Amino acid sequence: MIEKIYPVGKLYLHDRIPYVNIKITFRNEKERQFYESFEALQKSFGDRMAEKIIDRIGDLRDAENPQKLPRSSRFHEHSGGRKGLFSLDLIHPYRLIVFQTCEYETYIEITSVEIYEVTDPH
What we know:
The chain is built from 3 helices and 7 strands. It is of the alpha+beta class.
C-alpha cells in the first residue's frame, strides 16, 4: 500500500487507512428523504439553493476527508455556542451545518458526518 502524507501546518500526518468516502447520516428517515429530494429542497429553499445543497452533499459523499472537499465548500468549524459543528458554504449567507459522528484530532480524520441543518449562522 502506498503511504499518503498530508501536510497540516508544520505537521505531516501519515494516513495508512484505505480510501473510504465520508459517510453521511441523517437524524431520521424523514430528514434523509428531505435532503435527498430535489423537489422538497426546491419547495423550501428555491431552485438555486436546492441545487447547491445537493451539490454539497454530493461533495461530502465523494470526498475521502474534509481536506479533499472542493475549496469552494470552505469546510470550517464553528466556535462559541456552536463549537463541534462544521459548515460548508452554500449561497451567502447560508451554510450546510454538519457534525462529526466519529472521533478525530484533525480534520483529515473526520470520516463520517450527520447533516444537522441549513441556516444563516451569522
